[in-house]
């Protein structure tokens, strides 16, 4: 059976490797240029590939297509393949069809990576055969090609969920839904919400759905979707049944008649947004009967991920924080809300149709200066210029850091929290964060 993989990044290379292992006749096509590490993987495995264009030679006779999350469904080559009778699915759909392990799948506009890695940390600490994959680290399919696991903790994006058919996690987590990637979804918020809710589309009464009971978009859609799974709300504002909540500075896991609690001051991850992440991970762990002591210890000893409110250095009393992973407005809201100090905010990059209005009150209250780091900063300059005393442009991480240092005083925070994608000046958000950190350490 012929298998075509469109896109040769981490997801595509992983799908090709799994297809090869399963005995498919695999061909990989990428319109761009493949990275050397993926070329080497394909060559070593004896997988045929092309780069620089989709030749179309494979249109006839291809029955199954694995599409990279970055390729929109309306792309001509995808439409042609569907017209020719091929089934087009995502890499997570493909891998899920061939695992015998349990799946915990995590999505949301913000907090996916932290929750995924924290959940993995809990299961690993409990001695389970577990691995984190998907939109974080290595691809689901690529790791499955190596060997199956008992438990898969998957970070899944809306793009990955766009092309699922029967993908059904045992536990699905939906952390939040706020405006992001609207350029991919016709600038319609409902289209984006539908994509996120696809994580719960195939759940049965035997499965579990963990969700924020404080998110208006989630609650509105929850009423309209026919979700058959057992529901587990989490809230930082009010008590809930069969979930987790915060009251009087205590986190309470309330899944059985024997709830347990711990002080939020003992959590390794601080800030309201991280409390949601901690609650979601805890509920998923208890659904798998992990011991309370393991969950409690994991919540207190977990180390935060790189590029997410990452402390870099303190220089002459000025704290430098790398939040390069905050590629949307809501991520920035959490970052600004997290600090009581005055902030010099570094923002900018590729705007994805951002609505900055939810940041206005926090900017007026906390931000003393803004540095716009991007090739086109006009929208940011026009919107935020009247709100702050100082606003400037930068076109390199070093320039941004030097400006931040000049604007800041002792006890201030210089915060890289871009609200935008990085591709105008950097390879990705990791590259942006690394360059920021190098520039800080060079001061």
TrEMBL record:
Compartment list: Cytoplasm
Gene Ontology cellular component list: cytoplasm
Residues that coordinate or bind ATP: 108-114
Enzyme Commission number(s): 6.3.2.9
GO biological process: cell division; cell wall organization; peptidoglycan biosynthetic process; regulation of cell shape
HAMAP family: MurD
Main function: Cell wall formation. Catalyzes the addition of glutamate to the nucleotide precursor UDP-N-acetylmuramoyl-L-alanine (UMA).
Name of the protein this chain belongs to: UDP-N-acetylmuramoylalanine--D-glutamate ligase
Species lineage: Bacteria, Pseudomonadati, Bacteroidota, Flavobacteriia, Flavobacteriales
Gene coding for it: murD
């Amino acid at each position: 059976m012929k298998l075509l993989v469109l896109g040769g990044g981490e997801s595509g290379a992983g799908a090709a490797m799994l297809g090869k292992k399963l005995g498919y006749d695999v061909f990989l096509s990428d319109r761009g240029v493949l990275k050397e590490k993926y070329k080497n993987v394909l060559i070593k495995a004896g997988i045929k590939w092309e780069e620089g264009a989709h030749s179309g030679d494979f249109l006839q006779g291809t029955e199954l297509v694995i599409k990279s999350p970055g390729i929109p469904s309306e792309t001509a080559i995808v439409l042609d393949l569907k017209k020719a009778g091929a089934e087009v699915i995502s890499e997570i759909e493909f891998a899920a069809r061939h695992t015998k392990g349990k799946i915990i799948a995590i999505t949301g506009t913000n907090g996916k990576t932290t929750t995924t890695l924290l959940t993995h940390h809990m299961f690993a600490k409990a001695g389970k055969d577990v691995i984190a994959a998907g939109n974080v680290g290595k691809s689901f399919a690529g790791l499955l090609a190596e060997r199956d696991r008992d438990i898969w903790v998957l970070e899944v994006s809306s793009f990955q969920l766009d092309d699922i058919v029967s993908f059904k996690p045992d536990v699905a987590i939906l952390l939040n839904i706020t405006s992001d990637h609207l350029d991919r979804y016709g600038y319609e918020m409902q289209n984006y919400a539908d994509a996120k809710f696809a994580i719960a589309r195939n759940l049965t009464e035997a499965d579990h759905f963990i969700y924020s009971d404080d998110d208006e978009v989630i609650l509105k859609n929850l009423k309209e979707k026919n979700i058959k799974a057992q529901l587990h709300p989490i809230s930082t504002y009010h008590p809930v049944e069969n979930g987790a909540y915060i009251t009087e500075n205590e986190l309470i896991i309330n899944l059985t008649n024997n709830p347990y609690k711990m002080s939020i001051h003992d959590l390794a991850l601080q800030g309201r947004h991280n409390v949601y992440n901690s609650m979601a991970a805890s509920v998923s762990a208890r659904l798998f009967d992990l011991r309370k002591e393991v969950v409690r210890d994991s919540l207190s000893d977990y180390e935060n991920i790189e590029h997410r409110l990452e402390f870099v250095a303190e220089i002459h009393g000025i704290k430098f924080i790398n939040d390069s992973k905050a590629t949307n407005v809501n991520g920035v809201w959490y970052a600004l809300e997290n600090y009581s100090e005055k902030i010099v905010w570094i923002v900018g990059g590729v705007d994805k149709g951002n609505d900055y209005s939810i940041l206005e009150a926090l900017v007026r209250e906390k931000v003393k200066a803004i540095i716009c780091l991007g090739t086109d900063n006009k929208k940011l300059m026009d919107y935020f210029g009247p709100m702050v005393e100082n606003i400037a442009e930068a076109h390199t991480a070093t320039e941004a850091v030097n400006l931040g240092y000049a604007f800041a005083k002792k006890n201030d925070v210089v915060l890289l929290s871009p609200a935008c994608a990085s591709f105008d000046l950097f390879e990705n958000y990791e590259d942006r964060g690394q360059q920021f950190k190098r520039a800080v350490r060079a001061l």
